[in-house]
Every structure is written in structure tokens, then in C-alpha cells.
Amino acid sequence: MNSNVIPTSPPRRSPNILITGTPGTGKTTTSEMVALAAGLEKVTVGDLVKERSLHDGYNEDFDTYWLNEDKVVDEMESMMAAGGICVDFHTCGFFPERWFDLVVVLRADTKNVYDRLEGRGYKANKINENVESEIMQVVLDEALESYQEDVMLVLDSNTVDDMETNVEKIAVFVERFREEHQHIQ
Ligand code: ADP
């Protein structure tokens, strides 16, 4: 077999979408709205990690689980094969590239990220780490390294208007994808 061959996505009638971004940029809210508007199944990876123990214990300092990436990928493989899934998570580089037809990176102003995470009751070190990460565009750089630019959408998520516009854009993508792939059995 030619080792240069890149594994292609299996054919699917309905797209898989990844919504990523620093915590507080609006992934959960946006993906809930996208799932409703476009008829996709929402998978919040953070919840899956907790519910199905896809981790290597708890990190007390940052109030979070140590992610076991291999377990997460194994757990999600069959659901992603079916298509029609909207995934939200704050890191994106460990997912197989072939899973996603659209990768959305949400961006928000520092003050908004700070206020949203403070409102959620995060500890100061966790707020600061995430604010810094948003300033340094860590998630955006990870997405750019992991996915082709032509499947990526980088969207501002500062206001409710932004959110509504973003949901509309993603829903239009889903509709077009389904029209173009309706012949697939
Ligand atoms: P994430 O999943 O990225 O951590 P959430 O979707 O939980 O972010 O959003 C955090 C908080 O910020 C929620 O209270 C949500 O309603 C609010 N929020 C998110 N995006 C926006 C936006 N574009 N405009 C106004 N409020 C927002």
C-alpha cells in the first residue's frame, strides 16, 4: 500500500461538525443551537469523558479530568461513522481529521471570556490560563495545524447577534452538504 495515501472520509449523507474554541467562547451554547436548527446530534466531549470515564484521573489544580485521547477516539469512532454529529470540545488536534466536514473555531474578546468563566465560578488560575490561551490563539493554531483550511470557519462569538449569525451560517452549510450528498446510500 502507498504510505502517502491520506485516509479519506467515508461517504456520509449528513455532515459531522466540530465546534472548538477556548472555554467561554460559546461552544456549548452554539452547538446546542446548531443541533436544533440543523437536526444534528450533539456530542459534548467533556460530558462523555465524565460519563464514560474516558480519563486518567482528576487534576485537582485545574478542576478537570486528565483526558485519555485514545479512549475518547475509540468511544466516538462508531458514532462519527454514521454522520450528522455536532461535536464540541476545547481541544481539537487529537480527533482524526477524516471525521469532520466542517471545523468551527469560535473566538471571543478577552473580557468576555473572563466574565463568562468568572460567572461559571472557575478558580482564578483556571480563568487566567484560559484567557491567556485565547489571547495566544492556542486553539486556533491547533486547528490550523490539524485541519485543511478549506474546512475551517473562524467566527467571532462576542454577542448574541454573533451567535445567531454563526448558527445560521453553520445550518446553511449542513443544508448544502445534505443536498450534495443525498445520493449516498
Ligand atoms: P463554552 O462551551 O465555550 O465554554 P458556553 O457556551 O458555555 O461556552 O458559554 C459560556 C457563557 O457565555 C454562557 O452563559 C453563554 O450563554 C454565554 N455566551 C456564549 N457565547 C455568547 C455570545 N456569542 N454572546 C453572548 N453570550 C454568550
TrEMBL record:
Keywords: Transferase
Known EC number: 2.7.4.3
Tagged with keyword Transferase: yes
Protein name in UniProt: Factor activating pos9
